[in-house]
Each structure stands twice: as C-alpha cells, then as structure tokens.
Amino acid sequence: MAHYGYLEKLGLAFALALLFYIVKCIVNVVYTYVIGPVVNKVDFKSKGKWALVTGSTDGIGKEYAKELAARGCDIVLVSRSMDKLKATATEIQNDYKVNTKIVQADFSEEGIYDKISKEIADLEIGTLVNNVGISYSYPEYFTDIADWENTVTTMIRANMVSVTRMTGIILPDMVKRGRGVVINIGSGSSLIPSPLLTVYAACKAYVDKFSEGIDMEYNKKGIIVQCVLPGFVCSNMSGIRRASLLAPTAKTFVKSAISLVGTTSKTVGYFPHAIFVNTINSIYGMSGRFAVWLITRSMENTRRKALKKYKNKREKNIA
Ligand SMILES: NC(=O)c1ccc[n+]([C@@H]2O[C@H](COP(=O)([O-])OP(=O)(O)OC[C@H]3O[C@@H](n4cnc5c(N)ncnc54)[C@H](OP(=O)(O)O)[C@@H]3O)[C@@H](O)[C@H]2O)c1
User: Fold this and answer.
1) Its family (predicted)?
2) Is the minimum distance from the CB of 80 to ligand 1 under 6 angstroms?
C-alpha cells in the first residue's frame, strides 16, 4: 500500500470533502427541482375548496391565482383596484370554470381586516397566498426616501402587517380542519446585501422569519408553510418588461415556485435565482466590502437614472 505524507493526506481529505460537498449540492438541486415536485405534489383542492390570493390582479399574485384555479380551486381575489379585480375574476371564471369572489382592500390602510374577515367568513379557505407587497419606486438612501412617513408606513403595512393579519384570520380554521397551505412571498433582497432598499428588504426578512416560525409551529398540525424569496421577475413592481434567464415572466416564475410547495419550506422558487443569490453571497463571503461596493454602485446608478427621469417628467408637466 502506498505511503502518503502529511500534506498528501491533507490534500486527499480536502478533495474528498469538496467532492462530498459538490455531490450533496447536486443531489439537493435534483431533489428540490426534479424529484420533489413529482413525489411531493400537493393537491391544493383537497386542502379546502377556496384559495385566497392578496395583490392578485397583476404580476406574481395573478399568476398564483391562475395556477390555483387551474388546479380546481375557487379563488378569492383581494386587491386594490375594483376594475382590475372584476377583469381578473372574469378571466379566471372563463378560463378555468371555477367560482371567484372579489374583496376590495387597500393594504396600505390599517382598518381593512374586519371587512376582509367578514367577507370570507363562510368560505373554506385551504390555500392562502400572502403575495401583496410594495417596494420603493426607486432605490434610495433611508433618510432621503420621498414622502418619508407615508412611504415607510405603507411598506410596513403592505409587506409585514398584511402577512401577519391575513394569516391570523385564515390559519385558525385551517388548524381546526388539520389541513391547509400558506405561501408567503418574501424577496431575495432579504437574502443578499440590499443597500438603498433597506426598509423593503427588512420587511421581507420579517416575512422570512415569520414563515419559518409558523412552519415550525403548525407543520405538525397538517399545515404546509412555504416562504418564496424571488429574485427579479418581470412585473409592474420590478419595472422589467423583457424576460430573461434571471428575470423570468411571472408565469414562468410561479409555475416553478408552486411546484416546490410540499418540498421546501423556504425557496427562491426558481433555479436561476438560486444561482444568482448564491453567487452574490459567495462574493460577499470572499470580500464583503467588494460585494457591498458593487451592489451600492449598481443601486446608485438605478437611483440616478430614476431621479433624472422624474426631473424630466416634472419639467415637461410644468412647461
Ligand atoms: N417582481 C419582482 O421582481 C419581485 C421580486 C421579489 C419579490 N417580489 C414580491 O412579489 C410580490 C408581488 O410583486 P409583483 O412584482 O408581482 O407586483 P405587481 O406586478 O406590481 O402586482 C402587485 C399586485 O398587488 C396589488 N397591490 C399593490 N398595492 C396594493 C395595495 N396597497 N393594496 C392592495 N393591493 C395592492 C396590485 O393591484 P393594483 O394594481 O390594483 O394596485 C397588483 O395586483 C410582492 O410581495 C413583491 O414584494 C417581487
């Protein structure tokens, strides 16, 4: 048998550890995105006749509503604009032959929850998608956020209070029935350094932690909880119109994310986003300062362009 020196043994141990790590990562990815969605497929309709989606007339929320309707659930749409609510309800009824109910509510207001609670009191809601969320109109330094008090309060209410209160309204009946699904939409911004989006990213970190705790408390009572933390997705909020590998359409994103319910309780929802988040965090791990400098520079560029656009618009309106 060959004799290895101390350094050779160390090198061999390192190579084996690296190989083990790579194999573990590959197995994890294959299980999460390929095997899990087949073996853990959730029958949403069996969790309760109705699914409720907040912020459901556009973007990611509308796609969740459509995906759940395609799986046979009746849909409660809770959103702000009545014309968009009516149009979305008609589209879903026609395309998927399910019932819909609309509830108009503005999640930037505080006193909406009694009304929502009353309107859905008689419905067996098996799936809750806490999707509504509001971000900055453009990246900005904390003290310079425009209309500071109103903007910050709106973000806190729409991103954090909504998730907490809607879960508080719907979870107790799910627990009584011993089944249900709660999907909370966070953001990848809470997983990576997010200067100039501080309040939004912090609100989404709350969604992540809240989901983790609810999962720990109610998983054993038959409730599936999943927190989805997307990267960029084409939508009004992101302002991205053209789909790419790193910024898919809301439809592509939701098709991927919903297939992971029952497999992972915390996910970015879409494989290329996992690569993006891991790359940023690897750079951050190697050199925190460089990563923060890079992201701050990119945020400042976006901020500069947005401010220039606003200035031009204001000047046009005055002229
Ligand atoms: N898009 C991304 O790149 C991205 C990335 C990470 C996380 N997310 C998260 O994904 C979720 C959905 O984002 P999105 O990009 O799909 O947004 P979106 O396309 O802008 O759609 C937002 C939806 O929420 C409704 N809404 C907005 N403000 C509301 C309010 N105050 N009260 C009630 N409803 C309101 C909108 O209805 P109205 O049109 O009537 O206002 C619309 O139906 C959010 O939680 C967001 O933080 C998005």
Assistant:
1) Belongs to the short-chain dehydrogenases/reductases (SDR) family.
2) yes
Ligand 1 pocket check for 156: Cβ under 6 Å: no
Of the residues 200, 206, 218, 310, which is catalytic? Answer: 200
What is the per-residue pLDDT for 316? 80
Res 6: pLDDT: 87
Measured in Å, residue 166 CA sits from the centre of ligand 1 at 16
pTM: 0.95
Is the CB of 99 within 6 Å of ligand 1? no
How many Å lie between the centroid of ligand 1 and the Cα of residue 64?
A: 12
Q: Is residue 1 over pLDDT 60? A: no
Does 232 contact ligand 1 (Cβ within 6 A)?
Answer: yes
Tell me how far the alpha carbon of residue 126 lies from the centroid of ligand 1, in angstroms: 22
Three-state DSSP string of the chain: CCCCCHHHHHHHHHHHHHHHHHHHHHHHHHHHHHHHHHHCCCCHHHHCCEEEEECCCCHHHHHHHHHHHHCCCEEEEEECCHHHHHHHHHHHHHHHCCCEEEEECCCCCCCCHHHHHHHCCCCCEEEEEECCCCCCCCCCCHHHCCCHHHHHHHHHHHHHHHHHHHHHHHHHHHHHHCCEEEEEECCHHHCCCCCCCHHHHHHHHHHHHHHHHHHHHHHHHCEEEEEECCCCCCCCCCCCCCCCCCCCCHHHHHHHHHHCCCCCCEECCCHHHHHHHHHHHHHHHHCHHHHHHHHHHHHHHHHHHHHHHHHHHHHHHHC
Residue 200 is among the residues annotated as catalytic for this protein: yes
Confidence band for 118, pLDDT divided at 50, 70 and 90: very high
Statement: residue 244 has pLDDT above 80: yes
